[in-house]
Amino acid sequence: MNSLPTYGANAAPPAIEVRGLLKRYGPAIVHEDLDFEVRHGEVISLVGGSGAGKTTLVRQILGLESPTAGTIRVLGQDLSKLSERDARLIRARSGMLFQRGALFSAMSVFDNIAQPIRELGHVPPDLLHDLVMLKIEMVGLSTRHAQKMPAALSGGMIKRVGIARAIALEPELLFLDEPTAGLDPQASEEFVELIAGLRRALDLTVVMVTHDLDTMTSLSTRVAVLADRKVIVNAPLEQVACVDHPFIQEYFLGARGRRALQALPAHRRAQLPEAAMEPVPADIAR
Ligand SMILES: Nc1ncnc2c1ncn2[C@@H]1O[C@H](COP(=O)(O)OP(=O)(O)O)[C@@H](O)[C@H]1O
Ligand SMILES: [Mg+2]
């Protein structure tokens, strides 16, 4: 039997398609029977407890880590069947902002952003200069910061430079691992606006690991929950909140979760479970 998935005549294959994923480290099983799908143009928030396997899933989709079993297709291509060269090409179509070490601390802002472009091979200096300055502008920074070192930048600016580097090659897919962790609410909100703007400008598909409910509510088309080694649901936030699972109940129906859910527009709020509409204590800070 042919078990390849089929798509409607006009439907493009998903941007990302993970089927039957198994990931083991020695005796420890991180993912088992995991399915995950992302369509073009989506912004998926990936949530789950600490150690649930969010970063490991992203690293496998990026080809930085191999699955123990199962298939991962990115932009229509099965990662396990790619030549070294094609794997590099696929990676160049993805940008990534890692959780830690967003920048090389010994390199200037300019060199950090230039690095993925330089890796492609020789690019004339004038062109490289223009490409990097354009990226600095695209992430809302002034080009006068180009020669600064990361240590001289604020947390919010470092994230912006990290995004500039992630979009240096104008990727189709953008992966963000806890991008607003450690940012104050103001910087988080600005970051959300930046991502929303870049998504429109570059027609990006985004997968974002995040704990930040406000970021999730304002940006994502769907929320994927990683628990029990699987993606247990991947749906609009209001539908996720209806799923009867201990992690979901605790995370989305606790006070912070309820505050985020209650900020949804009325037509989405109408689909929430009753428990989500319970009043939020006034002292719950952002
Ligand atoms: N290279 C590795 N070797 C062994 N265990 C690992 C490795 N990477 C991750 N793990 C384990 O896999 C599990 C999931 O980790 P991770 O994907 O980082 O979780 P999350 O990002 O959801 O917090 C954890 O138990 C972690 O210890
Ligand atoms: Mg992680």
TrEMBL record:
Keywords associated with the record: ATP-binding, Cell inner membrane, Cell membrane, Membrane, Nucleotide-binding, Transport
UniProt-recorded Gene Ontology molecular function terms: ATP binding; ATP hydrolysis activity
Domain of life: Bacteria
Domain ABC transporter: residue ranges: 16-253
PROSITE patterns (alphabetical): ABC_TRANSPORTER_1, ABC_TRANSPORTER_2
Keyword ATP-binding applies: yes
One Pfam family cited in the UniProt record for this chain: ABC_tran
SMART domains for this protein: AAA
Nucleotide-binding in keyword set: yes
PANTHER family: PROTEIN TRIGALACTOSYLDIACYLGLYCEROL 3, CHLOROPLASTIC (PTHR43023)
Name this polypeptide is given: ATP-binding cassette domain-containing protein
